[in-house]
Amino acid sequence: MSGMRVLLVEGSRTKTTSLAPAIKKVGFQVAVVHTGKDALLSVAAERPHVVVFETSAMRSSGVRSCFRLRERWPDLPIIHCRAADRVLDTSAAADIYLQRPFTSRKIINRIRKLLPATDHEDQIERVGDITLFHGKRAASVNGRGEFPLTPKLYGLLQEFMAHPNETVTRKHLMQKVWKTDYVGDTRTLDVHIRWLREILEDNPAKPRRLKTRRGKGYVLVVKKELPTG
To answer: I want to staple 146 with a disulfide (CB 3.0 to 4.6 A). Which of 76, 78, 138, 207 is the partner?
Structure first.
């Protein structure tokens, strides 16, 4: 559980008690930002597993940032904490809502609910030097640690491991992972491919495992031994 990253977006440094100490105490890695803009930057850079939006003391700009997170990262788990007297139409922005006051145990339980399962009795799939833990929804490369995967990253890696050394088209990935036939705008696919390479590759800028077939799609290159250097 110590590898799970939580981004805490707190709208005020003083008006509310920070949730960070309680979340850290149970083993999560916690980053704290205080503006919606910094939240967007942090998600892009750090790829947290869960975002907790504390908007009880935030202005409307903070709430709008919550919507922008959902638009840019549709599968990013978001918890929205708000004051009892605030009435906000945020039905599309968060996965879970909590109304203040609430206990530390409650917020921690909600975070755990949105994280990948951590059952040690796991189904394991290996292709080349990549190991996929289905129950944990995590991946390992060359036995170096385990990287938790978001639902979309997990779906992509499943498709590539099901078709090693074969070109998997962008259309196929959009159909299987995003459940759509629309391929007019695949920027979200590009972003997720970049994130997946950051997990699979020693040098994501020069991928050796997950390669692009220009104009066609991508191929997961599986070799018994990858060259060094």
So the answer is: 138
Alpha helix stretches (DSSP H) within the chain? 20-25, 36-46, 60-72, 104-114, 151-162, 170-177, 187-200
The answer to whether residues 90 and 83 touch, using CB atoms and an 8 Å cutoff, is: no
Global confidence as pTM: 0.53
Do the Cβ atoms of 94 and 78 come closer than 8 Å?
yes
What is the torsional sign of CA 176, 182, 184, 188? negative
- Residue 91: Cβ within 10 Å count: 7
Report, in angstroms and rounded to the nearest whole number, the Rg of the chain calculated over CA atoms.
Answer: 19
| DSSP per residue, 111-130 | HHHHSPP--SS--EEEETTE
**Mind listing the domains of the chain with CATH numbers?**
5-114 (3.40.50.2300), 124-220 (1.10.10.10)
Segment 87-142, tens digit of pLDDT: 554 455 677 888 777 888 888 888 888 876 554 445 788 889 999 988 788 999 99
In whole angstroms, what is the distance from residue 35 CA to residue 143 CA?
A: 38
Q: What is the pLDDT of residues 155-168, one digit of tens each?
A: 999 999 989 999 99
| CB atoms near residue 184 (< 10 Å) | 5
Place of tokens 């890695």: 29
Cα–Cα distance between 196 and 159 in angstroms, integer?
A: 12
